[in-house]
Protein 1
Amino acid sequence: MAWSGAGRGAWLTVTVGILSLQAWGGAARAQDGEADFPGAAVRFSPHADARPAGTVIDTIVLHDTETPGVRKAEVVARWFLNPASGVSAHYIIGKDGEVVQCVREADRAFHAGPSLFRGRSRVNDFSIGVELVNGQTGSDPFPAAQMTTLVTLVRHLCVRWSIPADRVVGHHDITLRPHLKRDPAPNFPWPAFTAALWASLPSALAAGAQEP
């Protein structure tokens, strides 16, 4: 499948330079156990906490990192580990398809900011955030390896948490600051991604998606 074509798009704006990202080597938030997603590296961020009691995880929010020139998920993970950043996401996917987990799926990450989805605010409370390493220039590609991993990861999340496909959204779909948060970039291949995800899911979860 060709990963091409523009679509809708939109969160994380890294406001420090690439050199600052690469230089940070702070300690991870103490959390026990292996990654929730098989094969992911674990770099737990301090910017996470418990979800409100009784919260059902039912939404997945896709972001890009807005980091021109960066390829590796580990570089972005260092920013999430930085005590000064104040931000995090559950997962980061690098351009080569490598995955870093920064927050436990069951915990709340700080990725959505001021947000609203289907009448519910505070989207961080009930969502899982996935960051794609990308410059958000509109021409920086989302390579096939990255997109293949994204489909595999999102399928894992949908199946594990019983999330229907129509609740996999971009940051731009839920942000209350659309003039600032446009991720994923406009060249993110929504049609191809949706088709691949829809085909991979059990029928009960794919039912909410529009057939490609």
Note: Residues 1-30 have pLDDT under 50 and may be disordered.
Protein 2
Amino acid sequence: MSGKHDLRVQKTLAAIESAFFTLLERKNAYNVTVTDITQTALIGRSTFYKHYLDMPDLIERIVGIYVKKFVRPTWDYNRLIEPVGAMEFYTSYFENVEKHRNKYRLLMSENGIANFYPLARQQGYDYYQGLFEYHRERLVVPINPHNLAVYVVSAHLGLMENFLNYGEGRTPQEAARELVAITCGCVLKNLGLASVCFASERQK
């Protein structure tokens, strides 16, 4: 019985989320009402309030879900510095963007969530600063991890936006290969940081 109940809950939450994104096509996120959601999702108000306190709660939780999917902040620091690990990481990154392309476009559109991009940038910054702090002793050139994280995150988000808006027809693997080449093969290598990305290759 609990399995059927869980499935019904999942379907209800999916219907509410789908309704929210459908409404973003024509309304500003902050003008969407509970009535809009319930009518679009074909659910009762009591069902909505069973899962969310109000519209700000729904928006906050949707933002939290898609920021985490967007940035992937739990990837292991040691795996990311290996060529195979970096390729796997960035491939999954672009696969996620491709899978949720329309949702990300809506979240960052004029009708979208004002703090979505800043939150994604901050989460990415926190991850990369942690990465460079973790590998600080391996850096050939003593660059402040804060500045390096700001630079890398800005570049990565720029490439992601380009893939999001103009990358249809390109595969996530192609986009990932380009990002790995730019980040590891060009930028970090020219900064004397090739040892970070290619340490495992030189040790073979």
Note: The chain has eleven helices and no strands.
